[in-house]
Specification:
Chains A, B: It holds the Pfam family HTH_Crp_2. Chains A, B: GO terms for molecular function: DNA binding. Chains A, B: This is CRP/FNR family transcriptional regulator. Chains A, B: Residues 24-146 form the Cyclic nucleotide-binding domain. Two copies of one chain form a homodimer. With 232 residues, the first copy, chain A, is an alpha+beta fold. Chain A has two domains: 2-158, Jelly Rolls; 160-231, Winged helix-like DNA-binding domain superfamily/Winged helix DNA-binding domain (Arc Repressor Mutant, subunit A). Chain A has helices at residues 2-21, 30-38, 122-131, 133-159, 162-177, 186-193, 197-209, 225-231; strands at 40-45, 50-53, 61-66, 68-74, 80-87, 91-92, 108-111, 115-120, 181-182, 213-216, 219-222. In chain A, the strands form three sheets. A four-stranded antiparallel β-sheet of chain A has the order 1-8-3-6. In chain A, strands 2-7-4-5 form a four-stranded antiparallel β-sheet. Chain A has a three-stranded antiparallel β-sheet with strand order 9-11-10. In chain A, a hairpin with a 2-residue loop joins β10 and β11 (219-222). In chain A, α1 (2-21) crosses α2. The termini of chain A are far apart. The model of chain A has no long low-confidence stretch (mean pLDDT 87). Chain A binds chain B through residues 73, 75-76, 79, 81, 100, 102-105, 133-134, 136-137, 140-141, 143-148, 150-152, 154-155, 157-159, 194, and chain B through 73, 75-76, 79, 81, 100, 102-105, 133-134, 136-137, 140-141, 143-148, 150-152, 154-155, 157-159, 194.
């Protein structure tokens, strides 16, 4: 009995939380809400673990309670390109793309920090989107927003010269990390900026020569943020 | 009177045509249909002319009656990357992106062949999408489809080595043109594949050396389609 009451209380909390993520919540019928609630799962992912791999398992819609996720694509030979990141309060619908026939590409998602998520199974959304135009519209609208994120990233990669891109990356990371030092390897920077490690090392060396940064093992210390910003 | 009747007849034809492009047509009220009809314009663009430039003028939703359009993005220094092409029967909603706040990037559109289009002014769709969830959903769903096209293109550019990309391009163009000869310059190939002309010329020369193609001024003749295909 006590357990049942606890379950009910948890159910109520989950419903409240889902309502805060989904703007179409009030357009749903009672049974549709109940259906989503009963298929929404709280889960935790440790930093560095895999959250979603479309080819193997379609995790469904992701709601980020806390932490940080990285969404990326990967080439056959293992190079990857970061499309965008997800932070607390964000939603990811592309991780449920297995049920959207319009989306024909695969993404991967890693936890970059210890993360707490709610995931809603994709098959639930498949039937919900068929029944309820507001739910369907929410998903496509979210997709359109991600399209813009991805286009921005692609333009960075395809059109910006790499000194600009590296400067943008370092400044963005500093803004997130605080302070002047980034604990990051050249390999990681290459991964995140979609370049080769050699290119990153060469450009960092060039930046060091210019007095913009100081490089040491696993660390990049920014010495002249103002001039680095001018590069962007 | 005669003129009025002709106008009415044209109006009826236009309504029929719009209904065939827009799956949400039957979900509209009479006045909404009339509103779209009265703001839908038939127009012709000659090969090589500009159809849409988001920064200068947002042309609105494009329906392609006949011809061929190229949708692309452009860097500040004038390099461009083809995102996708539009053929007879296709719709483009990104050319109305000025009214979608979720879409924050600009595209350009050229007529690659003499083209006959219907365009529907973006402000009409802005209010329609606010009033009618089915119209809104159509637009975002179309956007999601284009997202997939663009991701495919980006993966080609970012992940495939250029020999593969060039082979894919030549085979795709052959399929459209028929026969074995493409009337295209190295400059044009570079533009369409998002590479430098020098890179294209070098790779074509390499293909020629391999007996895959024969190059002459403004022309690429494919000699060994089977082996070219194997490259892809």
């Amino acid at each position: 009995m006590a357990q049942e009451e606890t379950d009910k209380a948890i159910g109520k909390d989950m419903e409240k939380e889902l309502a805060s993520y989904f703007p179409f919540w009030e357009k749903l019928e009672e049974r549709q809400r109940a259906d989503i609630c009963s298929h929404a799962v709280s889960s935790r992912y440790s930093k560095g673990t895999f959250v979603h791999n479309a080819a193997e398992e379609c995790v469904g819609i992701i709601l980020v309670r806390s932490g940080q996720l990285r969404v990326y694509i990967q080439s056959e030979d293992g190079r990857d390109i970061t499309l965008y990141r997800l932070f607390s309060g964000d939603t990811c619908v592309l991780s449920a793309s297995c049920f959207m026939e319009e989306i024909t590409f695969d993404i991967l998602i890693d936890a970059e920090e210890d993360s707490s998520l709610i995931t809603v199974r994709p098959d639930i959304f498949r039937s919900l989107a068929k029944e309820n135009i507001y739910a369907e519209n929410y998903i496509y609208k979210q997709t359109a927003e991600r399209f813009s994120d991805v286009m921005w990233t692609m333009q960075q990669i395809l059109f910006m010269s790499f000194d600009k891109r590296l400067a943008v990356f370092l400044i963005d990371e500093l803004a997130k990390a605080g302070g002047d030092t980034l604990y990051i390897t050249h390999d990681q920077i290459a991964k995140y900026t979609g370049s080769a490690r050699e290119v990153v090392s060469r450009m960092l060396k060039y930046f060091e020569g210019e007095g913009l940064v100081k490089i040491s093992r696993g660390k990049v210390c920014v010495l002249d943020r103002k001039r680095l910003k001018e590069l962007t």
